């Protein structure tokens, strides 16, 4: 039976994991097994955090909008409902930026939402 020689491919595969682990501290960048485990852990964390980032930013935007609404005696829920009744199609990121950088325009939106909520038959 012939002998299978797999040296070049094994070396290439191991170099790929070690290159991915470059920059890690100590044996995590030098030894094949620990580097591979650390890179796999890092890839898993990156995948998870890319999804978590969306949740965190949504919560941040809602908090910013709520902070902008506090001085107008309105809460986030009724504001968004009033905008929906008015047919305003601005997303949370735009609204949070408006609340921070252009409060005058944001006040106009708040007043517009209040008008829509105060109209009869708006519920």
User: What value does the average pLDDT take?
Assistant: 92
Q: What number of domains?
A: 1
Terminal residue distance: 82 Å
For the CA atoms, what is the radius of gyration?
A: 27 Å
Tally the helices.
Answer: 5
Corresponding CATH architecture: Orthogonal Bundle
Global morphology: rod-shaped
In helices, the fraction of residues equals over 70%
> Which stretches of 5+ consecutive residues score pLDDT under 50?
none
Query: What is the CATH class designation?
Result: Mainly Alpha
Order of helices and strands: HHHHH
What profile does the largest beta sheet have?
none
CATH fold assignment: c-terminal domain of poly(a) binding protein
What's a quick, concise take on this entry?
With 123 residues, the protein is mainly alpha-helical. The chain contains five helices and no strands.
């Amino acid at each position: 039976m012939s002998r299978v020689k797999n040296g070049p491919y094994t070396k290439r595969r191991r170099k790929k994991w070690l290159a991915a682990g470059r920059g890690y501290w100590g044996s995590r960048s030098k030894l094949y097994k620990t580097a591979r485990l650390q890179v796999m852990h890092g890839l898993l964390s990156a995948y998870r955090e890319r999804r978590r980032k969306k949740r965190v930013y949504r919560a941040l935007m809602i908090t910013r909008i709520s902070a902008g609404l506090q001085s107008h005696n309105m809460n986030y829920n009724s504001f968004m409902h009033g905008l929906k009744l008015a047919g305003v199609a601005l997303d949370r990121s735009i609204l949070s930026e408006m609340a921070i950088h252009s409060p005058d325009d944001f006040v106009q939106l708040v007043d517009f939402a209040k008008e829509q909520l105060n109209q009869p038959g708006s519920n």
